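Can you give me the bound-state structure? Components:
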Amino acid sequence: MKGLLLKDWLVIVKQTKVYFLLMFLFALVPGMGIYSIFFGALLPMTALAYDERSKWGQMAKMMPYSNHKMVAEKYLFGYLLAGGIAVLEAVIQILYFILGIGEGELLQNMGVIIISVLAAVNVMALQLPVIFRMGVEKSRIFLMFVTISVMFGLQSYFSVRVFEGGVSRPEWSPYMMPEIFAITLIIQFVSVMLSERLYGCAVKKKN
Amino acid sequence: MNAIEMKHVSKTYGSFAIKDLNLTLPEGCIMGLVGENGAGKSTTIRLLMHSVTKEAGEIKVLGVDNTSKEFLGVREDVGVVLDEAYFPEVLNGWDVNKIMKHTYKNWEEETFFRYLDQFHVERQKKFKDYSKGMKMKLAIAVALSHKAKLLILDEATGGLDPIVRDEILDIFNEFTREEGHSVLISSHIVSDLEKICDYVAFLHKGEIILHEEKDRLQEIYGILRLGKREAEEIPEEAVVGVRDNGYFKEILVKREFLPENYPIERAGMEDIILYLAKGE
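Here's the bound-state model for the whole set.
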């Protein structure tokens, strides 16, 4: 799987340099870090689009890669990117805290980062099965709709605290974390299984 | 052991079908798979690698059923070059080496770069900037650099100039000198196959209509040039194909059905294939 990860990384880095710069800039702006994390989790879809364009899948089928590896690698790629950006965002938040700039409490901001990563990988988990079945081009509108809805939903939820007198919402608590982690794990597991099945169906259909 | 065994394999695509395909490549040999466009050569190769699922029959590659779990390990030992190289366009030779190093357990970096140099493929140039020939050469270098025991080549020499083609055919020939190494090569260029193959399989409209040792072809087939009246006297079972040239007929015949006094001439592989494809 390392070979597939490396291939995606090299392709993405070479194709989307501006995208990476934007992610870094968003990570620097207080309150915008969520967007970088989401962008990171969206990159597996971009990698799939490049795979489709080069017909890499046809060649990979001649190599020692199973359907499971082909599917699982895209998830892993998303986890690594979203996780990596989250670590960068966390470092920036800590620096802001030490320098006394930025907004909100450090712990609260860390919680926001963790929730954002989980939300981003769950969005990815919603999208990948659809892409593996229909291809990137046909599922583009669905992808945009899901991503934008979740991103703005999350942004609004966490922004309420910033604007005084905003809409009341149930207070987020670190004690909710185990439940959120458990739900995320279930979503990821189901999504990988579904993607593997749908990828197999798509390959058979192409046959 | 046979490197490739296909028994009664069938696959249908709409109006096109691979029918009851039987193909055997003994270990240590080179087999040429010939056939016109759309005859099913690429489908046969994809069936072999299980990237296309068969409807019936049995396929074994290097002694392993290609539907079994163990077949994934067999792919380590098979170097495949498809009719086009499908590497991501932004990658270059260096990148391909890094990726393949983590793809194949037996990847040989030195061998890969030696082939790139030998084929004059620039390592730092992006794949999208390669010519068609360069792309194929990169794919061939990859196939030859992970200690494969079997090479499966689908029109691998198609986009190459005659000098490089000759050089690469020599490499394939050299490859089979090592014990247990075999090659299946599909091509339109019959002269290439004639040069290196031990066996020839001719695929016509999804069916294998010729599967024979190359050297036996001369013993089995020959060409007769006869006047129209004399041609009618040839036994039907001896006639494989006829070309009417106006004044006389050129007939591809099976030698075994004719007495020795007939002036039978040598038939080249290309002649045999053309007559077999066109029939009477």
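A couple of observations. The interface with chain B takes residues 2-4, 6-7, 10-11, 14-15, 50-51, 53-59, 61-66, 203-204, 207 of chain A (CB under 8 Å). Chain A is about 80% helix and 0% strand.
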